[in-house]
Amino acid sequence: MRLATFQLNGRRQVGQVSSDGTKVTPFALMEAQAASGVLALVESAARGEPLPQLSAQAVSIESVQLEAPIPRPRRNVWCVGRNYHAHAKELSSSVFKANSGKTDEWPIVFTKAPECVVGPRADVQLPGGVSEQIDYEAELGVVIGSQGKNIRPEDALHHVYGYTVINDVTARDVQMRHQQWDMGKSFDTFCPMGPWIQTADEFDALKSRVRCWVNGEQRQDSPVDNMIFDIPTLIETISRGITLYPGDIIATGTPAGVGMGLKPPVFLKAGDVVRVEVEGLGEIENRFV
Ligand code: MG
Q: For residue 253, how far is its CA from the centre of ligand 1 (angstroms)?
C-alpha cells in the first residue's frame, strides 16, 4: 500500500495511492490527525488500530500537491554515511578521510534536522553565501513502525512500517569544515522526501535499486543489496540504548556517483533539477533555486 500526504482544497489530507500511482483516495481523518500526515497512520497502526475509512472519492494525483509523507518528523532524521563500497571509495580522499579506520566495523551515523524536510516536488534553496558545494545523495528511506530498543538484527524488519525516497542534500564544504555533519546536512529544504510511503509488506528493498539523474543525466545507479551495512544492521546499531519510535526515519546512505566524486567535482547550481528514484517505490524531483 502506498500512503501519501497532500494538499487538496486548501487542506492537508492523507490518502491511499492507487497501485499505478495515478489516483489518490483520501482517508476520513479529522483535520488535527491529517496535520501530521502519514505519521498519523503509522502511530495508529503502532497502537493496533485499523486503517481509517477511505472517503468516497478518488482524485487524480495530478490534481493534488504532494507533500513529504511525514511533513514534519517528530525528531531528527537518522542518516547513514559511507554505506556503499563504491561511494566510500569515490570520497575516500575528501569527506571520508577523517573517518577512515573504525568505519569498517561501525556505520557513520548523523542526523538531519526535521525542519529541513520538504515535499517530492518542492524547490530546494541553495544557501547562497554559506556554501558553494551543494551535492545530491539519492537514498532509500526506512520508516520505523513499532517502538523498540536494543533491537536484534533478526527482529529488525518487524519494526519497519515502510519505505520512502530521500535526497540527502549536502553542503560538502560545510560538512567537511565541522567535525560533525549535521550542519552541512540540515540547511532549510535539504531533505526532499516522498512521493509516498510504501508499506513493507509490498516492497522488497533488497531487490530494489537507487538511482539519480541531474538535468536528465544519470549519475547514480546501484542495487540496494550493495550496502555495506544492511538495513537490519542499521536498525540494530541505531537502537543500541536509544529507543526508536513509530515514524522515525532512517536514510540508509547513498551509492557512488555524487557530484563531489566526479573528476573534477561538479556541484549543483540554480536551475538544476535532481530526480531520485527507488525502483518499485517511486521518485522525487526537485529544482534547486
Ligand atoms: Mg547521505
A: 5
